[in-house]
Write a structure and sequence with these properties.
Elements: H1 9-38, E1 43-44, E2 50-53, E3 56-59, E4 69-74, H2 86-95, H3 99-103, E5 107-113, H4 117-127, E6 132-135, H5 141-144, E7 174-180, E8 186-193, H6 202-207
Parallel strand pairs: 4-5, 5-6
Antiparallel strand pairs: 1-8, 2-3, 4-7, 7-8
Length: 232
């Protein structure tokens, strides 16, 4: 990073006002993008997924509870892993305890992973999280929504993040949203992956407001600094 420019308060204020105009334009563009997202068509979910939960087997429809909408965080925790992904754990720290606020807007939140439920529960207890977390083990859910690639293969040929390219890992993160129609059927409305998840991470959004920002340019890869909350 180059040496910071030091200016007078008046000069700083002029520069800040110029940036504010760009920020306001970006906010309007983001509102338009959000509207376009809401206008996406829906796809009916016809598969009979059954998830392993603390309260016994549940269908995708059951995961909504009394809410009309469902947000799923695809948490990277492979079937044979002993711990959850550090980066997904970072994200989970940011959406922990949001469920009550989402419920006020008729929306449920759940994390779904490939690992057996007992591993998820043990890790959830270790991290002190309270959000619902269920296992998709034995179902095709994670494969169908583009986040799990057994043997690093992609039989569907869609690739990660709609790129249609082979992937180099078995587990990747994502978010998918669903809505329950008036007749009780469930429809898939949206999924996002990769950098599309940035907006969900308050820690990153706060760092983006600072002078140094995320300060990851010199690292071997972004998030190389991230550790599980109990290992810093």
């Amino acid at each position: 990073m180059s040496s910071p420019q030091i200016v007078s308060r008046d000069e700083w204020l002029e520069a800040r006002k110029a940036l504010l105009a760009k920020e306001k334009a970006f906010t309007k563009e983001r509102d338009q993008l959000s509207a376009a997202r809401r206008d996406l068509p829906l796809v009916l979910v016809n598969e009979d997924y059954v998830f392993d939960t603390r309260d016994g087997p549940k269908s995708l429809s059951d995961l909504f509870g009394p809410q009309r909408q469902l947000v799923v965080y695809h948490f990277m925790f492979g079937e044979n892993w002993e711990e959850g992904c550090p980066s997904c754990s970072f994200w989970a720290d940011n959406y922990e305890r949001l469920d009550v606020h989402l419920a006020a807007r008729d929306t449920a939140l759940v994390s779904i992973s490939s690992a057996p439920l007992e591993k998820l529960e043990a890790y959830r207890t270790r991290m002190g999280w309270t959000f619902d977390w269920v296992s998709s083990l034995g179902t095709s859910f994670n494969n169908d929504y583009g986040v799990t690639f057994p043997g690093k293969e992609d039989p569907a040929g869609r690739g990660y993040n709609y790129k249609g390219q082979p992937v180099g890992t078995e587990e990747l993160p994502g978010v998918s949203t669903f809505i329950k129609l008036e007749d009780g059927r469930v429809a898939h409305s949206y999924s996002t992956y990769g950098r599309g998840l940035d907006i969900l991470n308050m820690a990153y959004n706060l760092l983006d407001l600072t002078h140094l920002g995320r300060d990851e340019e010199s690292l071997p890869y972004p998030q190389a600094w991230v550790k599980r909350r109990d290992t810093y």
